[in-house]
Here is the input.
Amino acid sequence: MASSKRTPTAIEFVEYFRKHPPSTNAKKMLLVHYLSPQKTLTAGSFSKQMGWPPTQRSANLHYGTYAGKVAKQMKYPESSQDVSFLVKFCKPLAGKDKNLWQWIMRKPLATAIKQLGWGTDKRLEDVGSDIGFDPVTQDTKFDGSKRSVAEGRRKLRQHYIRERDPRIIRDAKRLALKKHGELRCEACGFSFAETYGERVSTYIEGHHKISISNMKSGDRTNVRDIALLCSNCHRTIHAKWPYISVDELKRLLRRS
Ligand SMILES: [Zn+2]
Here is the structure.
């Protein structure tokens, strides 16, 4: 029954695609769908853009086979061989397409594709400003000893920012304290309290595993979407776009 089917979260999709990068053809299917207006298309238009015979059947066959593979590898066996693992269907109420099923990309999948930065090399608005982490190359002739810049002026700034709610970080910290009795970096195990003492006894940074820049109005953050990290690990994740996951950071740590 469709209603009883579980579907993955965006984070699960991101982790899956990092582990199992899609083939060129599978990625093309995902991007054709992702880049369609409202992430919605008909099977016929899908087939046409993919160069398949322009029937509902070919889209069902190819996208369905891939969906089944993804479902199986993600351990959602009840969805195998079923394109609805990646797609929601609806029929428009009116208009010339009113008898054609519209294929809408499932939202967690679309969020994951955005998070992975596929199909766009556009830097997202909060990436640079997140840390101010500009790459620096070695230049032996550079003499910066005379350089000065004006700072500290009061300036009125008006711009859009993505809303952040500090309560979710606070809740994540509270939960971790309750569970472990202390706050440690989830990646490297660093404890501010242990190293610096009382002054920072409950300090730790909250990292959104799904970037805020990829969220839309109305998206919600669950406490499970927050990783608690020390400043070094947090900055290393945000140092370069595309960001790496906490697991990838852990792998870097193990290698060093
Ligand atoms: Zn750390």
